[in-house]
Design goal:
Blueprint lengths: L18 H8 L11 E5 L2 E7 L5 E5 L5 E9 L3 E6 L8 E6 L2 E6 L10 H9 L10 E7 L2 E9 L5 E6 L12 E3 L4 E7 L6 E7 L25 E2 L11 H9 L8 E5 L15 H15 L3 E4 L3 E2 L12 E5 L6 H13 L3 E6 L3 E2 L20 H4 E2 L4 E3 L5 H17 L4 E4 L2 H5 L21 H17 L4 E4 L21 E3 L1 H11 L11 H4 L10 E5 L11 H4 L4 H17 L3 E5 L24 H19 L1 H4 L8 E8 L4 E6 L7 E6 L5 E8 L3 E8 L15 E6 L5 E7 L3 E7 L2
Parallel strand pairs: 15-16, 15-27, 16-19, 19-23, 23-24, 24-25, 25-26, 26-27
Antiparallel strand pairs: 1-2, 2-5, 3-4, 3-6, 4-5, 6-7, 8-9, 9-12, 10-13, 11-12, 13-14, 17-18, 20-22, 21-22, 28-29, 29-30, 30-35, 31-34, 32-33, 32-35, 33-34
């Protein structure tokens, strides 16, 4: 564009663009449209060139609406040029006509670039931590004109254009400017408003026209089955969560009660007609429910944009966009704000391990393996038929790390549960010999993925100290939840998949056989403090033919409910933070399906309502008793009392915290009723029964200790007590003094 105004008396030379340039513009093959279209110096004046398909006449105007030159049509396809009388360096608008029709076009090629050399520098270095403010589509006022700035990474493309309703999806009209140092294409599209659907039209390195691509950084997408990106305003939310965020940033999360309610937003509840709730409708129902139930956090299965409902969000095509299924992004921000106002945290299930191969997504984004590895032994996931991110590329790392920071900053999320970490750590994950590529040292560890996870955690915790990251990691990889500076991966917590597997295996057995599998409940305590664990009963345990939690339990209906109540009592008394998938708190019989609401009608029946009350009371007991949570991740918070009574399938332990009254957790995991089970407690005196899973209010038989137990000194240190152990039940005792 011209850098100096026309001087009075100067005259521009007539513009005679070459036929080759005109043909290249018309066919969308011009190597640098910004060097040809727009306003340019011509001798002592200026010329303007534009391509407006369908126009018969074009008159150029300045932004004040004053005509500055009538352009000549050089090609019937709509190419015009001519001298213009400019008195300053300003963008131009064209008034085009065809018959009786008249419309105005602001010239996108008459604007300067938006990204600057410092952006280029940090992008190339891989240290740009504000890419979510630079890439994608953002509303700005540029050189006095409102519009949207678009930027996308496609270093191997011959051409990249924004196509949309505002240009009739014509890839010749908003061809982007290539920043060669970074491979990023950008353009300012004037007069574009929020709500416009758009994609990128990309010509690959060999001249091939690729399927239209959604914006990797789009902050909003269309509702499936449509899949275009949508221009959206910058998120504006009046946040009222300073106290909530300050609390979590100031404490040691390992020593706080954390009880997580895992939710699939599309099927927790639905409207009467079966359609999905909006975020505001969900806030009115889900937030009060979780507060009443005593959960500390809601963990959403992925709510980033995804095309296929049965993927549950784990095959995402829009990592930066809250899915349109529940409304606009502002609705999700309001939901999080509402949670924080009542002390609830919000955790997002985050999927940086892989992405789907849908044509509009990231795969072969610019005609090459850009986000993924080119070698299928590294870049294709055989279990899920997805592509694996290339963690060796700085641009891919920046894309993912910025995404984690984006959710923490823009939506004030309290945590990220990182999906499929095990698949990221091992190069031979789900692969046979010869189907994987070793690392530089000949090993199976994915060192590039390790570096990514360490960098992600370091940046997230460094900039948002109140956040927590949780790894779904099912192997014995060391130091998953240890700091990066100590050689760890840097996660705050790790899912304890061993606890889930062993305890479910034990409880699925008929109680008569449990004595032969005693170690399934004791073995986990050998490693319970090697990581900061979350005990997960997640959606994975109630799908794909596994049945619901109540359906896993053996025996008749009464025994099934008693077993499940005992299971939850054991879990809430066991070291580790808690996670429970929706519907399991009231013992839904049916296996979970994303297609419909939970079976809330079951709460009309006493056994199911009793189960809900138990989970509620377990949550509030766990939260109110520091002995049950303050040393969840430290060995000093646990001590066996009875660990070897396999004949009776009785287990008992102490939960402790410095300066707090201890809590004894006693589990009787057979239907045998013990009226006077001899038992040791660390202190003589009266111990109060603070919870009994066999209580009538929970649907149990009502057996128990009348609310208290007397422990008598023996002179040998510990005191003795005769306990009533209800059948298939867990009781908790706390010293009354």
């Amino acid at each position: 564009m011209a850098k100096s105004p026309k001087r009075s008396g100067d005259e521009a030379k007539p513009d005679t663009p070459s036929a080759a340039d005109i043909e290249a513009i018309i066919h969308g093959t011009h190597g640098d449209p910004f060097a040809f279209l727009g306003v340019h110096e011509a001798g002592k004046g200026h010329v303007a060139r534009c391509f407006i398909p369908g126009a018969e006449t074009v008159v150029a105007h300045n932004l004040a609406g004053e005509p500055v030159g009538e352009l000549t049509r050089h090609h019937d396809a709509g190419f015009f040029s001519g001298t213009v009388n400019l008195s300053g360096v300003l963008p131009v608008r064209y008034r085009a006509t065809r018959g009786d029709a008249e419309w105005t076009v602001t010239d996108p090629y008459s604007f300067w670039p938006i990204l600057g050399p410092m952006d280029d520098y940090f992008i190339k270095e891989g240290s740009h931590l504000r890419l979510f403010d630079k890439m994608g589509a953002h509303p700005i006022k540029h050189q006095g004109v409102d519009g949207f700035h678009f930027a996308v990474w496609a270093p191997n493309a011959r051409r990249v254009s924004v196509v949309s309703d505002f240009n009739d999806w014509d890839g010749r009209r908003h061809v982007m400017r290539l920043r060669r140092d970074t491979g990023i294409w950008e353009i300012f599209a004037p007069d574009v408003r929020a709500g416009a659907t758009y994609k990128f039209e990309i010509v690959g390195p060999h001249g091939e026209l690729l399927p239209l691509k959604a914006d990797p950084y789009a902050r909003r997408g269309e509702l499936r089955p449509k899949n275009a990106s949508v221009t959206t305003p910058e998120l504006e939310q009046v946040w009222e969560d300073e106290a909530h965020r300050k609390h979590w940033a100031s404490i040691n999360q390992r020593r706080q009660p954390i009880s997580i309610y895992e939710v699939h937003a599309g099927s927790w509840q639905r409207r009467d007609d079966g359609s999905m709730l909006s975020w505001d409708e969900m806030a009115a129902r889900l937030i009060p429910y979780c507060v009443d139930m005593g959960f500390t956090h809601i963990e959403f299965m992925p709510i980033t944009e995804h095309p296929y409902d049965p993927s549950w969000g784990y095959q995402t095509t829009g990592l930066y966009a809250p899915t349109a299924r529940f409304g606009e992004p502002e609705g999700f921000a309001r939901f999080v704000n509402g949670c924080h106002k009542v002390g609830l945290g919000v955790i997002l299930d985050w999927v940086p391990a892989h992405f789907p191969t849908d044509a509009h997504g990231l795969r072969h984004f610019d005609g090459t393996a850009l986000y993924e590895h080119a070698d299928p032994r590294q870049g294709f996931h055989p279990d899920w038929n997805t592509a694996i991110y290339n963690f060796g590329r700085l641009e891919v790392l920046s894309y993912l790390i910025n995404n984690a920071l984006y959710w923490a900053e823009k939506f004030h999320l309290d945590g990220l549960r990182v999906d499929a970490v095990a698949s990221m750590l091992y190069l031979d994950y789900s692969r046979k010999e010869g189907e994987w590529v070793a690392n530089e040292y000949g090993g199976r560890e994915n060192l590039e993925s390790v570096r990514f996870l360490q960098q992600m955690n370091a940046h997230v915790y460094g900039s948002h100290p109140g956040i927590m990251t949780i790894a779904e990691e099912s192997t014995s990889w060391p130091k998953v939840s240890q700091p990066v500076h100590e050689g760890g991966l840097g996660f705050g917590f790790k899912w304890n998949m061993g606890f889930m597997h062993d305890t479910l295996s034990y409880f699925a057995r008929d109680p008569i056989y449990r004595k032969h599998h005693h170690q399934e409940l004791t073995f986990g305590l050998l490693y319970a403090f090697s990581e900061n664990f979350v005990l997960p009963i997640s959606h994975d345990e109630v799908v794909h033919g596994k049945g619901s939690m109540i359906a896993k339990m053996p025996g008749d209906d009464w025994q099934k409910f008693a077993n499940l109540r005992a299971y939850y009592g054991l879990m809430w008394g066991h070291p580790g933070k808690k996670l429970l998938f929706m519907g399991q708190e009231f013992a839904q019989w049916g296996e979970w399906s994303e297609e419909r609401s939970l079976d809330w009608n079951l709460l009309d029946y006493a056994p199911h309502e009793g189960m809900r009350r138990l989970v509620r009371d377990l949550n509030f007991t766990y939260r109110s008793k520091p002995a049950l949570h303050a040393r969840d991740c430290e060995g000093e918070g646990f001590e066996w009392i009875v660990g070897d009574d396999q004949d009776n399938s009785v287990f008992a332990w102490l939960r402790k915290a410095p300066g707090e009254k201890p809590v004894a957790v006693i589990c009787n995991l057979t239907p045998t009723y013990h009226e006077s089970y001899e038992f040791s407690l660390p202190v003589a005196g009266r111990w109060r029964e603070i919870l009994n899973t066999d209580a009538e209010i929970y649907g149990g038989s009502g057996k128990g200790n009348g609310g208290r137990v007397e422990a008598h000194a023996t002179g040998s240190g510990w005191a003795k007590a005769g306990l009533t152990l209800p059948p298939l039940a867990v009781i908790m005792l706390e010293l009354e003094q």
